[in-house]
Amino acid sequence: MRRVPPAIRRAAARLDDATPPRRDRAVDALRALAILGVVLGHWLVTALVADGDTLRAASPLDRMPWLAPVSWVFQTLAVFFMVGGHVATRSLASARARGVSHRAWLRGRLSRLFTPVSAVVVVWTVAAAGLLLGGASFVTVHTVVKLALSPLWFLLVFAALTAATPLLARLNPLWPLAVVLHVDLVRFGLGGPAWLGWVNLAAGWLVPYTLGAAWTRGELERPRAGLLLLVGGAVTTAVLVLWAGYPASMVGVPGAAVSNLNPPTLAAVTFGLAQCGLALLLRDRLRRAMARPLAWAAVAAVNLSAMTVFLWHQTAMMATTATGLLVDRLPGLHTLPDGPAWVAARLLWLPVFAVALVVCRAAFHGFESAGERRARRSEGGSRVVRTGGRAEPADLRHV
User: Fold this and answer.
1) Residue 279 domain flag
2) Whole-angstrom distance, CA of residue 259 vs CA of residue 261
3) 3 Cβ partners below 8 Å, 6+ apart?
4) pLDDT tens-digit profile of 310-325?
5) pLDDT value, residue 67
6) Fewer C-beta neighbours within 10 Å, C or N terminus of the chain?
7) Which secondary-structure segment (H or E) carries 382?
8) Buried-state track 285-294, b at ≥16 Cβ within 10 A, e below 16
9) Nearest in space to 113 (alpha carbons), one of 43, 161, 173, 42
10) In a domain, 339, yes or no
């Protein structure tokens, strides 16, 4: 194995020393894994197919349903919401102890969320206008803009739950779970209207968010809690998929009659419970792993750029796709995702997407940093400590 350069080791050691001992590094590790899961999942199950001069979105899950387990690994939003609920309730309690008002606390939290969004909206507004003026088809423009801005739905839901954190801090997760169950019973069992499913957009993500609040209250510390969530969620999801007709894929598949994610179904929520249970069971192992300075530095790097990575990963994939069109229709990039050959080719493109994402991070991370600075001013605190005359991040919370 190639040795890690001494400069990187020294930087990792400084960051490790600068991190407060009370910090639960497993929380940051889970958030980093959730973010990377979403990114890799999108890169693997989203294809832009070149049809003449038009780009259309496609999914390998449509023609290769045996790839559904990929969505089980990389659809990690429930873990993200659980970690978000845990961090938000803990942060709110800390702010109150310091005399920070709810309004100031919320302003800080939302600054972290929406300051980076401004860059995405402006860039893609200009890009869409330029594409239309340049003669691109409406289908192409609609496809790329929808993919680029699709992460924003998540932020809107997350922002609403964050604003309601004082009301949700003690809510039992069984209540929103019951709402999801009844919505699906009416929608699928009694032939209710399809629009009713959108109630689950809030209720479905409330379940892991309030699980995070229960974590803050100390109710999920015993391994039995994680095991119950893992086994109960997995068994219930299997029953729903095998006997109740729910799709096996935990992400939407173009053309499918039902999507587990848009809006969330009971199967997506119970699957999320299983994921959260596994995450809770892994906490001790993650804490031990994060005691290694290099591992902690890698997780810290992801967390410090979490919003930028999340907001720009689809743009990075599309920029690579557009650049590739200058050469030819390339396998795994512009071709129809209809077989194992496409999967193999797509895996080879992942490092290229990652390089493009690094470029996006370099260009737009300043907006995330600006949101963090606004948050500090709102909350009246500092997240920087000094060691050896150098400033190092001590608190990596972004959402």
Assistant:
1) yes
2) 5
3) none
4) 999 999 999 999 999 8
5) 92
6) N
7) none
8) ebeeebeebe
9) 161
10) no
